[in-house]
Write a structure and sequence with these properties.
Elements: E1 2-7, E2 13-20, E3 23-30, H1 43-58, E4 73-78, E5 94-99, H2 128-131
Antiparallel strand pairs: 1-2, 2-3, 4-5
Amino acid sequence: IAGKTGTTNDSKDAWFSGFAPSLVATVWVGFDQERSLGESEEGGKTAVPIWVHFMREALRGVPDRRRPMPEGLVTMRISASTGRLASAEDPDAVLETFIADKMQGGASGSPAAGPAPAAGTSEEPASTEQIF
């Protein structure tokens, strides 16, 4: 599941467009007569919760379908606090995806330091329930 937020100037419109392998949905929040939603309103705060609620219901009982990783990409565990390669013991590490042939090999502490996984491999992504 992935998507993109959007907010117009002066917060007159906020939206989120997202998709799953079997469903695409867009949520728009705004007024019929153009006016601001309010200074702090934006797609990520206003439209995303509506989209998440809809997708939870719409995808209830639909089995997860994982998309294969495109060739030439690698996924590595990165320290959330340093942005460098994470040790296997780091409980706060996050998965990040890199273009394999653009990585700088050997730079001490860079995400490219150390052996990279084979192209096209990755750890299992989080399920939709973990994301929401």
